[in-house]
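Practice problem: predict the structure.
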Amino acid sequence: MLPERVKALIALANHEAASIPDFFAIKGPGLGDRATAGFIASLRRKAESSLGPGIAEVEILRNSKVRVDYWFKPERTFVEIALSLRNPLSEFERDVLKAVVAQPKRGAVKRLVLVGKPGATKRVASPWYQTVIKWVKTQGIEVHVEELTPKSGA
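Answer:
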């Protein structure tokens, strides 16, 4: 079960996605990158406003310039907005590695939540992803994949 603030972040992300026409359409490089950047920036503002300041873009190791999208410290949960998770190439491994490396430095990361577009859960059901997820669990970290959901009829 996910912590309440993580559920609230996912609800905010779904609301933000619903407010953007053609959010779930594949746009390709350039246009897609700009659309994603706008979505991420707007979600960050709304999340920090409603869920608390200092939770977004948190540097996981001092002076590393490596950041996690959201760090819910009391819940010991990293959240990465992984919109490309449904694609053959994504930042899955990098997101997992951030959690593993940061675990001793961030008060024992207990949970990594990846939020993707529809198709993300299907992608991570494949053998490679499942192998990585099982290994991460041996490191004391649960991996959860959540999908943003288009409105009915979208």
